Amino acid sequence: MGGNAYASKPGGEGLALFLELGIELLGPIDPDTGFVINVVEIDRIAEDVAVPIFAEAISGCWRRGKHIDLTRVARMLEAVRAGLSYNIDLGEVDKICVRLNPFRTVTMDTNETGTITFSEKFEFAAMHKLWNDAFSAERNFEVFGKCAHPTGHGHNYVVEVTVSTPAAGPALEIGRFERVVDAELIQIVDHKNLNVDVPAFERAIPTVENIATFAWECLAGKLAPARLRRITVWETDRTYCTYEGPER
Fold first, then answer.
1. 15-113 with 118-248: one CATH topology?
2. CA–CA separation, 130 vs 125, rounded Å?
3. Domain covering 15-113 assigned CATH 3.40.630 in the classification
4. For 78, phi and psi rounded to 5 degrees?
5. Each residue of 26-40: pLDDT tens digit?
6. What is the pLDDT of residue 90?
7. 241 classed as catalytic
8. What are the pLDDT digits (tens) for 67-118?
């Protein structure tokens, strides 16, 4: 069979489950090789340790008709972490993450035992104008460039919401999480003129930095049992801002 690391290896036939596993390591650079560890060795250990854990857990749940919630995913990640710990040549395992699809990621940080983080990306379209009434027109165009165009301009924004939740449960209900993000944030900004339609931006210039801060203020304290950890907003593929504020 063929192999494409982005579409399963070996290549799946027809409908196939595809997950992406990431392992981040800490350690000194070997002066003889320039590696912390050879990526070939990382791949071998991941295939020997991690792949069987996920394959057996998922197939076992499906055979019994059990739902695989985030608590079960956390158990799989913990089993992977324990398995990797026996491979001392790996160095220190810092983070293990599994990408459930292109928009959702679950991460276990080995320095935060008992906790996992869940990240999901959302999108919204909005227009804005970057303009400070205290500046002259000349100064506004000097600072904001084309973004100060009088009639504004639009972006297809992407916002990633990351929360932490106890690995042992209660499990984060993703459906409820999405409904809260949609009601408390997306519906407020989607297909809106941010300068005109969103009261917060009557006082603040709707830069990507201020949008990230606004998103935090909209969601902090509303995602229990999870705790909001960070918000990242992409204005374009090249321009984004991450904000971590105080939880309420």
1. yes
2. 16
3. no
4. -65, -40
5. 888 888 888 888 888
6. 61
7. no
8. 888 889 999 999 998 888 776 666 688 899 999 988 999 999 988 878 999 9
* Contact between residue 169 and residue 72 where contact means Cβ atoms under 8 Å apart: no
Q: Tell whether the model's pLDDT for residue 1 goes beyond 60.
A: no
Instruction: Choose, from 191, 202, 244, 247, the residue flagged as catalytic.
Output: 191
Catalytic residue among 120, 147, 155, 160: 147
The crossing angle, in degrees rounded to 10, of helices 39-63 and 70-85 is 140
Domain ranges of the chain: 15-113, 118-248
Q: Which residue has the higher pLDDT, 150 or 37?
A: 150
Determine the CATH number of domain 118-248.
3.30.479.10
Active site residue 191: yes
Beta-ladder partners of 126: 155, 192
Catalytic residue among 78, 120, 160, 235: 235
Active site residue 61: no
- The pairing of strands 153-166 and 115-128 is antiparallel
What is the C-alpha separation between 228 and 164, in angstroms, rounded? 7
Are 50 and 90 in contact, with CB atoms under 8 Å apart? no
